[in-house]
Amino acid sequence: MRYHTPTSFADASAIAAGAKGTLRFLAGGTDVLVQMRAGMVQPDDLIDLKQIPGVDRIERAPDGGWRIGVAVPGIVLGAHEALVRDWPGVVEGMNLVGSTQVQGRATLAGNLCNGSPAADSVPGMVAAGAVVTVTGPKGSRDLPVEQVPTGPGRTSLARGEVISAITLPPRGKNGGDAYLRFIPRTEMDIAVVGCAVNLRLEGDRIVEARVALGAVAPTVILSEAAAKAIIGTTLDDSALEALAKAAEGEAKPISDKRGTKEFRIEVAGVLARRAAKIAYDRAKGLKA
Amino acid sequence: MSKIHVTTTVNGDPVEFLADPRETLLDALRNHLDLTGTKEGCGTGDCGACSVTVDGTLVCSCLMLAAEANGKRVETIEGMAGEELHPLQRKFIEHAALQCGFCTPGILVAAKALLERNPDPTDTEIRYWLAGNLCRCTGYDKIIRAVQDAAAEMRGAA
Amino acid sequence: MARDDVKTGYKLIGTRPNRPDGLDKVTGRARYGADFSLPGMLHAAVVRSPHAHARIVKIDASKALALDGVKAVVTRADLPTGLTGEELNLQDNTLAGEKALYDGHAVAAVAATSALLAQDAARLIEVEYEVLPHVTDVDAAMAPGAPVIREGVADYSVPEGMNGNVARYMEFGHGDVDAGFAAADIVREQTYKTEATHQGYIEPHACVAQMGEDGRGEMWVCTQGHWYIRRMCASVLGIEAAGLRVTPSEIGGGFGGKTTIFMEPLPLALSKKAGGRPVKLVMSRSEVLRATGPTASASMDVKLGMKTDGTITAGQVFFRMQGGAFPGMSPIGEALPCAFACYDIPALKHEAVEVIANRPKAAAYRAPGSPMAAFAVESLVDEMCRELKLDPIAVRLKNGAKNGSKSSYGPVYNVIGLQETLEAAKAHPNYAIPLGPNQGRGVASGFWFNHGGETSVSLAVGEDGTATVMIGTPDIGGSRASIGLMVAECLGIPYEDVRVNVVETGALGVNEPTHGSRATFASGKAAVESARQAIAEMCRRAAADWGIDAEAVEWKDGAAHPAGPNAGKHPPMTIGEIGSKMGSTGGPISGHHEVTAGGYGASFGTHVVDVEVDPETGRTTVLRYLVVQDAGTAIHPAYVEGQYQGGAAQGIGWALNEEYVYGTDGRLQNPIFLDYRIPVASDLPMIDTVIVEVPNPGHPYGVRGVGETGITPPLPAIASAIAGATGARIRSLPCSPPKVLAAIKAKG
Question: In the CATH hierarchy, which top-level class contains the domain B87-157?
Fold first, then answer.
């Protein structure tokens, strides 16, 4: 295995484009090293992105949004007060990944590119409308987060392409987001179901909403039906009931070692209701 | 397969070694530097027995390549005691917070990192901070008590 | 009450001094299995079957051997032939013969100059398999038409007409069960299932071994019993036991899983082929989960008759247990006697069959068989208590075994503490805490026989009056501290003046492993006998000095004293004075005791748990947990509590989340700690303990053994608490959220 430490994304992209065999990028390494240890992946080339200037930074974008470097670990996101104030749901999703130790290394970009349908940080980013910047041999392009994973372990990135930044939009006024997942233990598990809700209020009424469901399909689902169920409502009981029904209707899970299909569908509705309430309270400024 | 020359600081001592690019920091600590206090319980970041700090951040040394430690500051269980034991080490013995002791180095390193950030944690905060450190012998009860007692002593001493 | 609070006349027993190995363990200096290295050492890796059941057509290691730095490959062809019985089973499990019998079964091993190179080489060993039909579930393995995975496993006990995977049959009982059921007001019958679980010790198996062409060798290994390792390795490799010297490392947990061999013969065989260079072999976590010894999975029918006042009139069980692809490993012989061990019931019938399946060879796991049996019987007792609106502790007090009861499995109980644990649980504040919505309380009792076993201990008095004790039972949970306390108590010297060492196979007679909760009981008992021998000799030395009869000398407070006024006026002669002169008064002073220790006493426990269940997700939170157990005498109460808490935590894991999940392809789906979900710190509350002390008359200080009983009650107690919280009864462990939610919804 060749270990590369490029100092620019252009170099990283060039190394990747020229690599012939199995290739992996290394940010936090909390997925890649596990796969190597298990013998699932034996990379011929491993490209460590952490020597590239700026990858460890969180910066306020000119429009008020946030630009997050690809090597920012969860523990740094969680400690960034202004970011947490704006996007608590995105940060809490990331902070649910693994242990304290894993938080010291794991990144949003890595969690996204690993391509797991159950990745905890992805529904929050999708609900937030996050965008990734991709650097490739032909230059850079921007892509909504939901267009990156294409199935378990797969992404839409072409050979030679690498995510060079993640951008969160400006939070704006009267908005709130939240992420909840279901796991059998209290920590350390892969999500059996995940749900993120991002919404904006005018007065008590929801005027914008995005609802994303994790671990109930090959990729994260951005559910228009679930969003519609609460837009225009004050999140009263009937809206919550409609939201749950919509989430259940969108979920297309499988049964596996972590949960049954029926369970996942049922719990998708439960989490959608619970996450929506938290996001609503946050938008009202009632809850951190 | 060409090896990588790694220069780093471990427990304050400058060290250098040649690492296979696939070797983890855990492998390097144990096999190249004879620091076998850091344990491998799973190799997948699920048990915390390999906990160390790198530039002050708590990590699993099994989830980091040795080559990535180049130029960093690594602290392991072997660096925890000075002339005297760290209060956590002493309290773990006094509270019988270890049985087989295999998870103990990782838990001590993790607990020390917690108390440096939060000198007065609740039981729940300790439990969630240590959720990535599996112990199969104790049921965690005496571990939580030992961490609380050490924290209280350290607050009093500060 | 813990001994701390009781006036006993003991000076040291019942106190909580620091454990002797504590300092090494908190500083990282303690050496576990993988921490040993030797000059010239090679590293090994193992090739394992990816199939649950397959004929091995061909193994081609030529590509691996062509790599620079690869020194040896071992396959079954390198092992001796002609073994029979359990020795053959051990050899078959070490390296597959004609067939791979489970996912993860070892097929070949390779040694190379680095661990990474050995792994690379293992990937280059080509194995051609012919995949065969497999079966992994206990009931499926017994069903008509199930593939028979090995011919001729049935022993003499199996009745005609049973499926070819049935290896053993057992039955026993007493009284007239039909009359008992007829006399009952209600008779209930249910089937319960438990999945296989793993001991989950955090330290993977590891050893360093060296063997020359003369078949003599040495091994450093993490094990609960190094004489067992020696005997089993010698059998598998066809060498003499005396030729192999085995030194136990510190052990990172065992819980029964390190009482046998899995890969230990491999580095010996590789070393021999590699010209005698030492070889290290360390298992990965997935190898541990796939290819060491989980516990059996079980399917169990229980029938009970009860009167409306709670009197149990009769009981009947039929247990089906699979312990992997080898006969003799499922604990039916323990599960059946444990089933009703807590009760005194006039009529009982026990039956069980052992079934083999395409799973790894099961090993002991903390009270083997007892947790499954308790789950079945205690769950049904609880179901009937709820139906008849009876207090579960009152029903157990009414029907529970007492001193002098004839046990369900035959022997008469001498002095036991079950009733005391029930009374203590009833009186504990936890039992009176009001429950909120979606909360429930479960109660269950549990039992373990405890064990004596082959034991050999030596003690030597030092020139300075300190004592060194050599024991052969590896210390897992603090037994060096408890044995040190007993020896110090006996000799009348400070605890700090006793050093207890776990010594290698060349230093003592044969010792059984640390299993059956026997270390503090049996090695402790032999250590006290050794100390008494040394005391007798020290009294003789003093007597000779004083010119009186040895019978006129008594030992107290670490010194020889004249026994009475007739013995003359002599100042006490301390152990230090005697030790300093021993070279000129007759030579070294030591004690030695070896015995197959009898007199062990059963330990009973009663647990009370409160849970809360999320009615929308089926997720269970343990709110509070109480363990009450009879220790006999708590030598070191902190480590007794530790056993209670650790056993409860393992039982909670078994009840809620832990299970072996096999896919339709027969492969283990969850061979990592991410998905084999043992409890993490944030899953558990503090675990309250009450140490009941009903001293065991069969031990000089009343010790019973406390390691195992504690894993038994959590399984039924938690299922019963969930039933209390939800009205839904889970009869198949684990009580995973999908199962609990489905049960809640099915109830309507």
Answer: mainly alpha
